[in-house]
From TrEMBL, chains A, B:
Domain of life: Bacteria
Annotated function: Catalyzes the deamination of adenosine to inosine at the wobble position 34 of tRNA(Arg2).
Keyword list, A-Z: Hydrolase, Metal-binding, tRNA processing, Zinc
Protein's name in the database: tRNA-specific adenosine deaminase
Family according to the record: Belongs to the cytidine and deoxycytidylate deaminase family. ADAT2 subfamily.
Subunit annotation: Homodimer.
EC numbers, comma separated: 3.5.4.33
Length: 173, 173
């Protein structure tokens, strides 16, 4: 019974922090960026937040995870984020997976899988490579439905806008 | 003959830009950082420079390659560094390899191999994964001797300082 309660509380906690990552992703969508958000958590406190801003700043490194990690480093005055967890709405790419490993993040929680570029379980399994000097515990599928729906809605809206622009273009011919 | 001359010129050009990366690495050493330097080149011009500043800023993302790429993005006002080459003194880690791929860098030239964390040829072969939407041409061993000697000298000096500190500690007992 205690074990079951523990699991329920753990799920609640995970969803609480993933909800904060989802809120970050919504900020990205407001900037017309692909909606991906991330938070870094230490001792039940959020110490870093980030949302995708690659287009806005035209900087290839401005992924949600990178910005959340950079903020956490600044907050702790340390590049080592030992004992910290990272929550992100989409499976990290190679770059972000490398940053997570380099920062010694303890646990990674992600929402939706990324079959095209995900480097945690889809294309690679970078988080548990015994040759590296750090391994990261992974839990996937946290609030998966909400995280992936947000992305689907975003890309559907883009397709609609493009279709409407094409129609308008033809009407003006 | 023309082909041979072409090869000589190409080698000269590679060494010219790698020398700029080595100069960056020496800047890192002056800050007591592991001496790693990088430059991004487009149309024979250096458009981004970076040296490792991880300890100085306590930011896990401040690797030489990342800083050179960020500067190049700013310079071109674009996260896509198409037609750009990256020169770096040490084989890139997973994070930097991911950034190189994400930025669509055309050619990567590196000096020394990194058997413990290199993700280009040592632990992984990330640059030519056909599942990803971009592949990078790689040339390794450019000014290898100088690049690796610089690292050896740096770590030897650290060991010496530690040994001297231990001796001093014992003398003070």
């Amino acid at each position: 019974m205690a074990r079951k309660l523990g699991k329920v509380l753990m799920k609640q906690e995970q969803e609480q922090f993933m909800a904060a990552a989802v809120a970050e992703a919504r900020q990205a969508a407001l900037l017309n960026e692909v909606p991906i958000g991330a938070v870094v958590v230490k001792d039940q406190q959020i110490i870093g937040r980030g949302h995708n801003m690659r287009e806005h700043f035209q900087d290839v490194t401005y992924h949600a995870e990178m910005l959340a990690i950079m903020e956490a480093c600044e907050r702790l005055h340390s590049w080592r984020l030992e004992g910290c967890d990272l929550y992100v709405t989409l499976e990290p790419c190679i770059m972000c997976s490398g940053a997570i490993i380099n920062a010694r993040i303890a646990n990674l929680y992600y929402g939706a899988a990324d079959p095209k570029a995900g480097a945690v379980e889809s294309l690679y399994h970078l988080m548990n490579d015994p040759r590296l000097n750090h391994q990261v515990q992974v839990a996937s599928g946290v609030m998966q439905e909400e995280c992936s729906q947000m992305l689907k809605d975003f890309f559907r809206a883009i397709r609609r806008r493009k279709k409407a622009a094409r129609k308008k273009g033809r009407a003006g011919d």
